[in-house]
């Protein structure tokens, strides 16, 4: 009977399909199951809150705020022109720019990111089809004080990725670890109801507590800014250090920028002039020459022939025409040379000390190598090569020409003199804080090396005190009620190996109080107009910062010092 | 009354149980597979379940009638049934008469329900074949007087259905027809020759229709165009593979969330495989084989030739359709939209299939008195 064959045929087909089912569901089942999961699961990255940047007292300088962003699902938009028009009116963007984003289908296109809260609310109210506003717990990097400390703090990109300054240098610490939400979704990407969500929570980033004092930072920026404005200068930098710990209490760099709109500033404004620029220090470097002399056996009261002009190896060196001339005397001491900032005298000291002693002292003070402060883009200056240390070279280096230094390096060298001879590593970071506020890491003062003996350091501070009392720092670097010490500097700016005419750096580096300094303050103003002298352009800012720093530290002015003022010559 | 003249035996309860199991699994799986669409389209997760239950209720009276009546009376109705089938298949092609859904004109919309004439025509075809084959039991070996007229009738029905277009049902008609000719004892060379004549026609139809060509290409290599022509097949395989041996659990299908197209109709078997695993899918396949086994036993024990062909034809219709459907879902056969009998959502199909089973049971109850029928070598021998 054929019916038997009919059933046999059905059995064979049934057996074949059973084999097919076994093949698809078991033998190849894992592969298909994996492919199925790939299309059914969708993972959303949830950004971790970026760490904050705090001042030394825990005041917030930069923090991340919740943000709102807008994206479009173009495939849902039926009338791109109308949608673009309505979006444009809310977001204040040109409709012609928005319309291409909304046209031509697709499932996702950013329309605008990190928009103001008010705009986000209006968009939500408008409820445009295919336009979605998403809220994130992070994303809006906000500087608490606007431009304050902007060049140190730096800025972040649209994804809160550090692009400059501390934001860039410590991006890996600040950046939180993104969390992940794994959803099961239907074919249209919508979550399946009741399906389990796997949530890996986002981890917030580490916060940086700086050594910077928000108040001193403000004061420093104000004082520097005033000098820059007064003298129509191009830029400037000021550093306030605690010489005993190496902590940077303030670091100003002007002009600055709004980190929330960094793209509007000229890239030059992003520069942190305190570490990213190197310059010829000029007279402020004479103290290094004096340190070399004292360390290498020159007596503190040694005398040098007094000239306003000498010739070294066919090269003429002369003193600045600033009223403190050497002529009229036969000899002058080191404290005269420093106090009146005599180039000729400094050259004579350097020549007496010799190239190798000067070289070793310059190196010992840390010139030519980065300070390792942790700020990006450090420019460690240029140490002359071997041929730069001939007689002419030694003579000019002795008064700060032919060598370039980083402002922070110079400040650290002065801090070594202030603290009794120890070169410290500058610190901008005080602590790393976990998201819950607990201390992850406490940075400690770090001694690089002893540069000069206690006795020599005290002698050097005495020289600096003389500058303020009777020399180039009198009276602009004096602070009523306190003792100050410091050194003026005026140096022509070298561009491509030639000195640019009329382009000077006017600087002052000083310390307060003069005997046991609590603060070392550097002020440098680039290309002032009307005056070029550190005493006029930079020292007043030093005095203002120094006074407010002392008051801030709780040290009241001494009435006796205030009354007598400083001694006048 | 005809009923009184015959000896009625008890129905084949094991067949009834098998079909009840399939219908039960169908209701559960329709609920599982359609609840997402039901909620999305009608805000009612039980929307499709309720409709299927309604159809089940509507199907019982005709099925009971088909079971209780004297099936021999169907022989006399054959011309009317065939006439109605051809008429309705022609009518559904007319615009404003047939309803166009998804590019095919297959349904008569009658208020809230829609009827699919090709399903009812299937039943008419089976009755016609049983009638014709039982009439020309000797002539079936002849090409001109046996095979050819039957092939022409099948061809008319198939071409009408092909116009909808519905290649799946059309090919099912042809398969059922050829199988019945084979069972009736037609000569193998004649059947091969018939197939040989059809091959160029089928090839022409496939090549001339871009969508049919795409389906064949997708069958050969679904991964070539996974988002488009290969989408059905790939999503079906992913569903089956996700199920593994034991399945994700009842109601746990992910593919039914619009990844798998036709998830509660033509591809419901993939959801069964995903939720109930290899175990569930093989059980369903096994139930169809069981149905075929019981039906053929009944056919062989039938009191007359018409009963034999009727039972065998009904069994062939149901089981071949099931095998084609499972073949499509497992990518063993090109995608042809045929539903899985008893399980896929669809009222016309459910009603026709239940009537088919009722006719098989009917034949099974009507035995030749006092004559023991030799079994065909299947285990169990005579239908006791």
Report what the structure shows:
The complex is a heterodimer of chains A (569) and B (384). Chain A is α+β, with helices and mostly antiparallel strands and 569 residues long. Chain A has 21 helices and 21 strands. Chain A is 36% helix and 24% strand. In chain A, strand 16 and strand 17 form a beta hairpin. Chain B is mainly alpha-helical. Chain B has a three-stranded antiparallel β-sheet, with no helix packed on it. In chain B, a hairpin with a 2-residue loop joins strand 2 and strand 3. The interface between A and B is large, with 39 and 48 residues.
Number of strands of chain B: 3
Major sheet size, sense and barrel closure of chain B: 3 strands, antiparallel
- Spatial order of the strands forming the largest sheet of chain B: 1-2-3
H/E element order of chain B: HHHHEEEHHHHHHHHH
In short:
The complex is a heterodimer of chains A (569) and B (384). Chain A is of the alpha+beta class. Helices cover 36% and strands 24% of the residues of chain A.
